[in-house]
């Protein structure tokens, strides 16, 4: 039986930063997707908000409901390529890099095993 619940709704969580983060920056640590709420150096604990919507710069044109991706440089993009799934766009946006309302997925389930 589970005891001592830590995060009743798991809307925000403290994780070990896998790199340096600035407050407001998109985060992808393991299966978690969210937005850093505090600055944190690699190895420190970073508070990550896993839900809600955020106005963050995104590269590329977007449609409502389109998946957005996180690049290895820590920027959001409309391009899948080798980028990590991060969240979804809540609005359409023209080409170029600019602000868009986006929502992180919170926790991304693992891909099913091949076989």
Describe it.
The protein is mainly β and 115 residues long. It has one domain (12-106). 0% of the residues lie in helices and 41% in strands. The protein has no helices and ten strands. Strands 1, 2, 3, 4 and 10 form a five-stranded antiparallel beta sheet that branches. A five-stranded mixed β-barrel has the order 5-7-6-8-9. A hairpin with a 7-residue loop joins strand 8 and strand 9 (97-104). It is globular and about 45 Å long. 23% of the residues are buried. The model has no long low-confidence stretch (mean pLDDT 92).
Low-pLDDT segments: none
What sequence of helices (H) and strands (E) makes up the elements?
EEEEEEEEEE
Helix vs. strand class: mainly beta
Shape: globular
Beta-strand percent range = 35-45%
Number of helices: 0
What is the typical, i.e. mean, pLDDT?
92
Query: What's the β-strand tally?
Result: 10
N- to C-terminal distance: 33 Å
Number of domains: 1
The Cα radius of gyration reads: 15 Å
* Biggest beta-sheet profile: 5 strands, antiparallel
The share of residues in helices is: under 10%
List key phrases describing it.
115 residues, mainly beta
Summarize the helices and strands and which ones pair or pack:
Layout: E1 12-16, E2 26-29, E3 32-36, E4 45-49, E5 54-59, E6 67-70, E7 76-77, E8 84-89, E9 97-104, E10 106-107
Question: What is this entry, summarized?
Answer:
With 115 residues, the chain is an all-beta fold. It has strands at residues 12-16, 26-29, 32-36, 45-49, 54-59, 67-70, 76-77, 84-89, 97-104, 106-107.
């Amino acid at each position: 039986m589970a005891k001592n619940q830590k995060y009743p709704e798991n809307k925000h969580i403290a994780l070990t930063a896998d790199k340096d983060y600035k407050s407001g920056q998109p985060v992808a640590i393991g299966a978690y997707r969210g937005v850093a709420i505090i600055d944190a150096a690699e190895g420190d604990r970073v508070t990550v908000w896993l839900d809600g919507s955020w106005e963050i710069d995104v590269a590329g044109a977007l449609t409502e409901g389109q998946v957005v991706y996180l690049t290895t440089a820590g920027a959001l993009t409309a391009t899948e390529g080798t980028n990590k799934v991060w969240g979804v766009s809540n609005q359409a946006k023209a080409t170029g890099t600019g602000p868009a309302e986006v929502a992180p997925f919170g926790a991304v389930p693992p891909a099913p095993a091949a076989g």
